[in-house]
UniProtKB/TrEMBL annotation:
Pathway: Nitrogen metabolism; (S)-allantoin degradation. Belongs to the ureidoglycolate lyase family. It catalyses: (S)-ureidoglycolate = urea + glyoxylate. This is Ureidoglycolate lyase. CDD domains: cupin_UAH. The gene is allA. Pfam families: Ureidogly_lyase.
């Protein structure tokens, strides 16, 4: 038996407790490069614990997922935030859970609009990278350094993530 989770649109307000929505909207903070480029400045609060920790940029190439999606596991990173920036204009699924006494609560699922990325706050329970189209190519900004920065939680009963009708 599975429990259904309905996908919500990703907005700043609905996602605020889990992290930040990264997107170029509104007027840019600055115009640079001979007036040809708008800079949307300092959109994410990167947070890395540890003296030797630093920000790193990696590329992730993930397989496309389909709906309904079977959610079996979530993870969190106790030592650092993690930002996902799609390298295409295709939407992807973002799954997060509130923390309930050190374990994930009921998941919420969001779908991004074209051009949106996310930055998960440190220690936020979240699903794995879930592109809904190929190629699932993402730039990821996260913590590089020593220490155990990954905790996984496997649900006894999986959830089924569905499109809202």
């Amino acid at each position: 038996m599975t429990t259904d989770i309905l996908i919500e649109p990703l907005t700043e307000d609905t996602f605020a407790v889990f992290g930040e929505v990264l997107e170029a909207r509104g007027e840019p903070a600055k115009i640079i490069n001979q007036g040809k480029c708008g800079r949307y400045h300092d959109l994410a609060a990167l947070d890395f614990a540890g003296e030797e920790a630093r920000a790193g940029i990696s590329l992730f190439l993930s397989e496309k997922r389909t709906l309904p999606y079977r959610l079996e596991m979530v993870e969190r990173h106790p030592l650092g935030s993690q930002a996902f920036l799609p390298m295409t204009q295709e939407p992807f699924l973002v799954i997060v859970c509130p923390d309930e006494a050190g374990k994930p609560g009921r998941p919420r699922a969001f779908v991004t609009a074209p051009g949106q990325g996310v930055n998960f706050y440190r220690n936020t329970w979240h699903g794995v990278l879930t592109p809904l189209s190929d190629p699932g190519l993402f730039a990821v900004v996260d913590r590089i350094g020593d220490g155990d920065n990954l905790e996984e939680f496997w649900f006894e009963t999986p959830y089924r993530v569905l499109k809202r009708t």
